[in-house]
Amino acid sequence: MNARTEPAPAGSDAIARPPLVRELLLVAGLFLAYKLGRQLATGHTGEAFRNAYDVWDFERAVRLPGEGAVQSLLLHGDGLAHLANTYYAAVHFPATAAFLIWLYLRRPAHYVWARRVLAVVTAAALVLHLLFPLAPPRMLAATGLVDTARVYGPSVYGSPATDSLSNQFAAMPSLHFGWALMVAVGLIVATRSRWRRLWLLHPLLTLLVIVGTANHYWLDAIAATVLLGLTLAAVHLPHRTVTTAVRAQGRLVPARTQVQSQVRAQVQAEEQALAGAGR
User: Fold this and answer.
1) Which end of the chain is more exposed for a tag (fewer CB within 10 A), N or C?
2) Cβ proximity of 133 and 171 under 8 Å
């Protein structure tokens, strides 16, 4: 991901790299389950709009900033709105796929951890989509927001009545934001670059895009953050199995070698003391 990223200490990913074919089948299966789960949530139009009004009213009651403030920035020019729509349509899946591929090749232990986290987050999100169908703000007239994808393009959605490829009433939690945040967290954990926290710009930009294009409410991103936090607390990073190491002369020296050196030095000191006492 970053050519200047300092590699992790040798052995920090001691876990064997999972078989490639198995991982491809597993990821493909998760994607199909994701698409199927979204299809199961269709047909709840009335409930989705009632929930949307409740979410909108709740955000105003707790004085969250209006989504329109973000969208107004995009509407200063057609180009900016088009760019935001393109980011929404084209970055979500490729960025997550690139993240997993890089971890698989360079950080196998972190890959297994990240894949588990994403699988749990996605499965939990699909359950919430079934339990709480939610129309996005672009469909809610009360918001006064513009469907920027329909007006400026490109759009990944068709008409809700005829769209058979996606469930447009699955706004909460936002997997766009949840996955973007996990990509940033995963790269921060798996790398050593002093600039690694800049990866947080990805979820920040994603947040502005999903809100500014009226595809999500602020609460959708908040729900995704809480869900990811709970998952990270439950799915722990693998324990490092390598011997504790210390830095000496600019390279890693195993702790066992350091202990042996200390023992030899102590024996030599005792021999010298005995030799001195015998004089």
Assistant:
1) C
2) no
How does DSSP assign 70-136, residue by residue? Answer: HHHHHTT-HHHHHHHHHHHHHTHHHHHHHHHHHHHHH-HHHHHHHHHHHHHHHHHHHHHHHHS-B--
- CA pair distance 94, 215, nearest whole angstrom: 19
Inter-residue contact 103 to 114 (CB < 8 Å): yes
**Higher pLDDT, residue 245 or 90:** 90
Query: Are the CB atoms for 121 and 130 separated by under 8 Å?
Result: no
The DSSP letter of residue 248 is E
pLDDT of residue 204: 97
Other Cβ atoms within 10 Å of 62 Cβ, number: 9
Q: What is the DSSP string of 206-229?
A: HHHHHHHTTS--HHHHHHHHHHHH
Tokens of 101: 């591929």
| C-alpha pair distances (Å), 4 with each of 10, 39, 47, 101, 194 | 17, 43, 50, 18, 10
Amino acid in the structure at residue 245: A
Mean pLDDT for the stretch of residues 98-127: 92
Q: Is the peptide bond prior to 154 cis by the omega test (within 30 degrees of 0)?
A: yes
Asked if residue 143 lies in contact with residue 137, where contact means CB atoms within 8 angstroms, the answer is: yes
> Please, what's the b/e burial string for 142-172 (b: 16 or more CB within 10 A of its CB; e: otherwise)?
ebebbbbbeebeeeebeebeeeeeebbbbbb
Exposure letters 205-226 (e unless 16+ CB within 10 A, then b): ebbbbbbbbbbbbbbbbbbbbe
